[in-house]
Write a structure and sequence with these properties.
The complex is a heterodimer of chains A (243) and B (76). Helices cover 71% and strands 4% of the residues of chain A. Chain A is mainly alpha-helical and 243 residues long. Chain A starts with 10 loop residues before the first strand and ends with a helix. In chain B, 91% of the residues lie in helices and 0% in strands. Chain B is built from 2 helices and no strands. The chains are: A mainly alpha (243), B mainly alpha (76).
């Protein structure tokens, strides 16, 4: 019975598979809508590509070149091959964040499970990329820096492992906390009306919520960008050769 | 002190300290970024992008504290 229960997702179609709760919630429906939107946008934009682009193709090209120049430029090896993954990640997280701000739709990134799933996917891809490009020996060599005495190496290995595990954790918590905190602050502003028990106070929370919603739009875009930027950074550091 | 009161107190103080640290951090960051833009105005776009990226990292740490304080204030 806490006040934040208004921000949780609730089940729409309860389902259960062998004891695991896989019911369709608000957040799942939001993710499906985001999936359809992202797919339709990029598919329609690339159907009949012209040299002088129409509006939809132009928008998609701006998006992709922004991702390629700002985010994908960190990866030295095979930059173009990573681009579909990075663009999809960026667009999917952006649309999910923005859909969560619509009143009535349950947010998907306001739930730690969604962001943890995305961070786990990134973690798996980073480790797989490191193993694929460097081989097992090169991948393990990254945990042992050069030219330090042997008894410090025994300390360094758990430290490196923990820092590798802390990365997806921080990705998940950063995205979740930014989105959830935005909703929580808006809820707290609205609850001022219930605390004051008076209609006079109404302009203050409503105008404050309006201003904060504009800020939340900005934060939604920034957090999607930061997630994708950090993904590219982790891929770049996992794939590069030791120099 | 009953545990509920201690949890509320901890939540408030914790978030206040985290907000103070974040304010100082973002302030220093923005000052250095503005200095860089003033020295070399043609790099303004690059510097602005890097500044926003770094602000997102600093804010993330404050939001770790926020999540912990929300758990303290609403669950104990």
């Amino acid at each position: 019975m806490n006040i934040l229960e208004h921000l949780y997702q609730h089940k729409v179609i309860p389902l259960e598979l062998w004891g695991i709760d896989v019911s369709i919630t608000n957040g799942v429906i939001t993710m499906w809508v985001a999936l359809v939107l992202v797919f339709l946008f990029f598919w329609l934009a690339s159907r009949k590509p012209k040299l002088v682009p129409g509006p939809l193709q132009n928008l998609a090209e701006m998006f992709i070149t922004f991702t390629r120049d700002e985010i994908g430029s960190q990866i030295e090896i095979e930059t173009e091959k990573w681009l579909p993954f990075l663009v999809t990640l960026f667009a999917f997280i952006l649309v999910n964040n923005l859909l969560g701000l619509i009143p009535g739709m349950g947010g998907s990134t306001t739930n730690i499970n969604t962001t943890a799933a995305l961070a786990f996917i990134v973690f798996a891809i980073v480790q797989a990329a490191g193993l694929y490009h460097l081989g097992l020996r090169g991948y393990l060599k990254k945990y042992i820096p050069e030219g330090i005495p042997f008894f410090i190496v025994i300390f360094m290995i758990p430290v490196e492992i923990v820092s590798q595990l802390a990365r997806p954790f921080s990705l998940a918590v950063r995205l979740f906390a930014n989105m959830f905190a935005g909703h929580a602050v808006m809820l707290l502003l609205i609850s001022m009306i219930f605390i004051f028990h008076n209609y006079i106070i109404i302009p203050i929370p409503v105008l404050g919520d309006l201003a904060f919603l504009a800020f939340e739009l900005f934060i939604a875009a920034i957090q999607a960008f930061v997630f994708t930027y950090l993904t590219a950074f982790y891929i770049a550091t996992a794939v590069e050769e030791e120099h | 002190m009953i545990p509920q009161a201690a949890a509320f107190l901890g939540a408030g103080i914790g978030m206040g300290l985290a907000a103070a640290g974040t304010g100082i951090g973002v302030g220093i960051l923005a000052a250095k970024a503005l200095e860089g833009i003033a020295r070399q105005p043609e790099m303004a776009g690059n510097i602005r992008t890097s500044m926003i990226l770094a602000i997102a990292f600093v804010e993330a740490i404050a939001l770790y504290a926020l999540v912990t304080c929300l758990i303290l204030a609403t669950k104990v």
